Amino acid sequence: MDLSFLRVATVVPHVNVADCDFNTNNIIDQCFVAAEQGAKIILFPELSLTSYTCGDLFNQSLLLDNAEKSLVYIKERTKELDCVVIVGAPLRNNGKCYNCAVVMLHGCFIGVVPKTYVPSGRGVNEKRWFASSIINSNEFVKIGDFEVPFGSDLLFEQGAVKFCIEIGHDLLTPVPPSTYASLNGANVILNLSARDETVGGYNYLKSLIEVHSSKCSSAYVVSSSGSGESTTDTAYVGCALIVENGKVLGEAARYGHNGMIEIRDIDIELLNNNRRMLDFINDLASDIKKTYKEIPVCGVELLHGGDVSLLRSIRRNPFIPSNDAELQNRCEEVVNIQVEALIKRLKFTGIKNVVIGVSGGLDSTLALLVCHSAFNRMGYDVKGIKAITMPGFGTTDRTYMNALDLMRQLNVDQKEISIKKSVEQHFVDIDHDIKVHDVTYENSQARERTQILMDYSNKCNGLVVGTGDLSELALGWATYNGDHMSMYGVNAGVPKTLVQHLVRWFALNSDENTKKILLDIVDTPISPELVPADELGNIKQKTEDLVGPYELHDFFLYYFIRFGFSPRKIYNLAISAFEGEYEPETVKKWLRTFVRRFFQQQFKRSCLPDGPGIGTVSLSPRGYWSMPSDASMALWIEECDKLCEK
Questions:
Q1: Strand, coil or helix: what is 61?
Q2: Residues 4, 303 contacting (CB under 8 angstroms)
Q3: 11: pLDDT strictly greater than 70
Q4: Which CATH superfamily is domain 324-641 in?
Q5: Does pLDDT of 372 surpass 70?
Q6: What is the pLDDT of residue 547?
Q7: Torsion sign (Cα): 152, 156, 162, 164
């Protein structure tokens, strides 16, 4: 089992102001609730033991004494739980009082982290009660009869997990303490907070956390005070938020009168692999002089495997935003990147003609639409777009008519050149039986089409625009020196699952006639159309029947390239994401196909034409993906073959 997930609970209990007994019982109850759901770290808000809004009662020894006793009681009551518990409490040390996070495990206090930056002003005056803390790690604080490591420079670690703690306003400083902790290896940041509610404040906080989490390549977990806090001058509605590498994993519904809890699985391997790919983090770490004391977390296994039910959402289509408004924005942005990249190439070469093969399929349609947009943006005559449809033995009426109709609708210069006679002659030349529909039969057609495009571009001083997409490059689903080759590949960075949405986006922003054509193209089965149609004239050769569903392959591609996951990890994620749609054996079959083809077909990617990358996954050999064409796939295939084994 691949151990890589950390289950974290962020809890906002209902509190009574200055009522340690009431708050203690609520904290203990919530610990058991979270532990029952498998949480290995349970986080409570800032000063949750006393409540945050005690005011000058923090100067009362009775309250501070009672808080200390309550901590000892919580420690004892939770010692049977197999998890780390973190509670906010006021603690005295060396004649000062500190706003602290107290970390306990199996009946022991393992560390206390005081707040570093104590705010004062604009309705917040913590300096009235608490000292600011930048303390050496050789200091200790006494809780009851226990001497506990005390300092803002504590890191808690176990294997691949290393977490740090910061409190409330520490996050809002120009350089939060967690920045230094992250550069020293912390991949999980826990924030005990007590943020009063203001209009727009929550969205600002969330955006701040998303950016900070992404910059630190970390998870960021927040528990902020909620119901029961004093509303004398401010209101507290609570915040239970879990963010991973800039993306929200979970957030509890706010304004909960009886408290709230949010539990999610953080992918530690994702964070560590992503961090390893970011060279600047290692460079910065070497410049940081601050040192940390590492506190081992012993006696509990923090990580669990992904082959259990995950408490996180695994998106089936990682390249496609789940929100429709965001998807429309993404489509517009992608198209703009493609268009501007093509414009630059045309301006540099001084060429005012492009040559493109149009099949009536998704990829060539998108490439044609990008060319059309580029010419309009540059003020070029769209007749400079030399669109050529080249029907062959497998061309169906549906794709043929869609290709012709679209070219006419866009008013580009259209040309039809059948490849049948030339390919038949070629079969005679190479002594190939036309009745044998093998790879020679198929690739001869693809290479004939490429020859036509290249030669016609010479004739009209044009630039051949390639149509192949990112998913096809990953699978090697292209004929070498056939549709594999062009002078500029505008779709090279676009995965197949996104191509469909881009064409649909063009449709929704077109006139009714163009829209109708484009939507029919979107609904047409994906096919190279290199073998004859069936007896009814329908597409017989469907790509996804041969190599597998593109939604699976794009899922595999994303996690294989973006985060360097192993087949077992990708398989576990896919089982969770596609539950109810694909059986485990089906996922295994197509994952093995992906791995085999990805390794075998690297030679095609090693000599790719230029083309713009549009996201964090690209297969260009010029910096994005560097891999020997003869690398062994044995390790990856062996792991694929062991999938589904108990």
A1: helix
A2: yes
A3: yes
A4: HUPs (3.40.50.620)
A5: yes
A6: 86
A7: negative
How many CB atoms within 10 Å of residue 290?
12
From-to residues of CATH 3.40.50.620 in the chain: 324-641
Kind of pairing between the strands at 84-93 and 41-43: parallel
Contact 560, 546 (CB under 8 A): no
Residue 88 phi/psi, 5° resolution?
-90, 130
Between residues 201 and 455, the one the model is more confident about: 455
Q: How far apart are alpha carbons 353 and 341 in whole angstroms? A: 16
* Beta carbons within 8 Å of 529's beta carbon, 6+ residues apart: 359, 361, 392, 394, 395, 396, 399, 539, 541
Spatial distance between the Cα atoms of 150 and 98, rounded to a whole number of angstroms: 11
Whether residue 340 contacts residue 370, with contact meaning beta carbons closer than 8 Å, is answered with no
Question: Is the distance from CB of 213 to CB of 248 less than 8 angstroms?
Answer: no
For residue 183, the tally of other CB atoms under 10 A from its CB is 19
Exposed (0-12), middle (13-18) or buried (19+): which is 437, by Cβ within 10 Å? middle
CA dist 598 and 582 (Å) reads 21
Which architecture does CATH list for 3-305?
4-Layer Sandwich (3.60)
Q: What is the pLDDT of residue 197?
A: 79
Residue in 621, 627, 601 with CA at minimum distance from that of residue 480: 601
pTM comes to 0.91
The whole-angstrom separation of Cα 244 and Cα 262 is: 14
Token code pair at residue 44: 């409570």
Helical (H) or strand (E) element with 326? helix 324-349
Pick from 17-26, 107-116, 231-240: least confident: 231-240
Rounded to the nearest 5°, which phi and psi values hold at 233?
A: -130, -15
Instruction: Identify the burial level of 124 via C-beta atoms within 10 angstroms of its C-beta, where 0-12 means exposed, 13-18 middle and 19 or more buried.
Output: middle
Average pLDDT score over residue span 176-190: 93
- Confidence category of residue 234, pLDDT binned at 50, 70, 90: confident
**Residue pair 99/114 in contact by the 8 Å Cβ criterion:** yes
Q: Which residues of the chain are in CATH 3.60.110.10 domains? A: 3-305
d(CA 511, CA 159) in angstroms, rounded, equals 58
CA distance 136 to 470: 52
DSSP states along 589-618? HHHHHHHHHHHHTHHHHTTPPP----SS--
> Do residues 134 and 124 lie in contact, with contact meaning Cβ atoms separated by under 8 Å?
no
d(CA 536, CA 637): 40
Using an 8 Å Cβ cutoff, are 604 and 482 in contact? Answer: no
Predicted pLDDT of residue 195: 82
How many angstroms separate the CA atoms of 45 and 42, rounded?
Answer: 10
The token pair that represents 561 in the structure block: 């390239």
Q: What pLDDT does 534 receive?
A: 62
Residue 47 to residue 57: CA distance in whole angstroms = 13
pLDDT at 308: 73
* 379 contacts: CB under 8 Å, gap ≥ 6: none
